[in-house]
Specification:
Layout lengths: L1 H20 L3 E8 L6 H17 L2 E2 L2 E9 L4 H13 L5 E4 L3 H14 L3 E3 L14 E3 L4 H15 L4 E7 L3 H16 L3 E8 L7 H10 L3 E3 L4 H13 L5 E4 L6 H7 L7 E4 L9 H14 L5 H20 L4 H9 L4 E2 L4 E2 L11 E7 L2 E8 L2
Parallel strand pairs: 1-3, 1-4, 4-5, 5-6, 7-8, 7-9, 9-10, 10-11
Antiparallel strand pairs: 2-3, 11-14, 12-13, 14-15
Helix pairs in contact: 2-10, 2-11, 3-4, 5-6, 8-9, 11-12
């Protein structure tokens, strides 16, 4: 009798998924940090997804329905959000999350239920490594760290570097390690390595320790709030070193919090509007400006690319079936994005260029682009 009931329950579960795939709308989940310590990322990505959906509102002749759930930038909340999207909202695929640690926690749930999940901006290699249903449209940290180290050593002529690392974030720890490895290979020296935690406000101890070593450059691959506060306090205490960061620094709040102190900071990023080179890229820039009356940003752009490539995969799959969508995503080796062609490698990572940016006159400014 227990076996019979188990079969009935399983039948109902699979029937509910089948009904979801056959519905009049194609339901796509979106898991982003709309509140919490990295809310700026989620808000920028959601804006990009909304514009992308307005550009391509249908797939397979059906309307796309986006279901947004707030992860709050938290690992537990992220896992709960993904489970809700799959079990209650019956989505066929998920766009998200924005940061690596939360993408990994939510991705474990997506992997368990066999639902494809594509992150716009989670760069830690472990996000997709060994995963069947996890994808990303951004580059990964080994490449980002390599390019940052090379730019620091060859272009900025730095020979002594200090590392300032958020030990609570997998993204920050991993990226710092990749920078260190490559900087040393080039002949550079790591003269200091100090730690902090997400949400810290006082960086006096870290600044003092770094200042004593007189590095040419300080590499702080963290998130915008802490980067702005660290930089501000460093400049107030007389630190003259170049400050170099990564994609996590890109948010208007960096400049709002840091003010003049963040002038001249360098960072690696995914996208710059000046590098847009395709028809779809130009149309996205125009549509985004029309909707929000401002230029595009990297998080909005990558989230839009995640939507575009996912809709393309659903079309290729021929139905909103998670397993078939996954297979279609895996077979995409060349896709026209906003800055050019990209595709997925064997680990479901996007192969794409790195943009070098700075802060100049209170604005983010384009410096260079490095292709893989």
């Amino acid at each position: 009798m227990k076996r019979v009931w188990l079969l009935v329950i399983l039948g109902l579960v699979f029937s509910s998924f089948s009904l979801a795939w056959a519905a009049d709308k194609v339901r796509i989940g979106v898991c982003l940090p709309m509140t919490g310590p990295v809310a700026a990322y989620g808000q920028m990505e959601w804006a990009g997804i909304q514009v992308a959906k307005e550009m391509f509102p249908t797939v397979l002749g059906k309307e796309v329905e986006l279901v947004l759930v707030d992860s709050k930038g938290d690992k537990v909340e992220g896992a709960n959000a993904v489970e809700r999207l799959i079990k209650l909202e019956k989505v066929c695929a998920i766009i998200g999350e924005a940061i690596s640690s939360v993408t990994m926690s939510g991705g474990a749930i997506a992997e368990q239920y066999g639902v494809p999940m594509i992150s716009p901006t989670a760069t830690n290699p472990l996000v997709t490594q060994g995963k069947k249903y996890l994808f990303r449209v951004c580059f990964i940290d080994p490449f980002q760290g390599q390019i940052a180290a090379k730019y620091a050593y060859e272009t900025l002529k730095a020979r002594k570097a200090a590392l300032v690392v958020d030990v609570q974030q997998d993204y920050c720890v991993g990226l710092a390690n990749f920078f260190e490895e490559n900087f040393k290979k080039l002949g550079g020296e790591i003269v200091a390595k100090v730690m902090y935690r997400t949400g810290d406000q006082d960086f006096t101890a870290q600044v003092t320790a770094v200042k004593a070593k007189e590095p040419d450059i300080i590499y702080i691959p963290g998130y915008y709030s802490e980067i702005a506060l660290f930089t501000k306090q460093a400049r107030e205490l007389g630190v003259k070193s170049i400050i170099f960061s990564a994609d996590g620094s890109y948010a208007p709040e960096l400049i709002q919090i840091g003010g003049k102190a963040v002038e001249g900071i360098y960072f690696t990023n995914f996208y710059d509007q000046k590098a847009v080179a395709t028809d779809i890229g130009k149309k996205f820039v125009e549509a985004y400006r029309k909707k929000f009356n401002k230029d595009t940003d990297s998080f909005a752009a990558l989230a839009a690319e995640a939507y575009f490539v996912l809709v393309h995969a659903i079309e290729k799959a021929g139905e909103a079936n998670p397993a078939k969508i996954r297979d279609a995503l895996e077979n995409i080796k060349s896709f026209t994005g906003l800055m050019g062609e990209f595709g997925f490698d064997e680990n479901h990572n996007a192969i794409r260029p790195v943009v070098i940016q700075t802060v100049k006159d209170g604005q983010f400014a384009y410096l260079d682009i490095v292709k893989p």
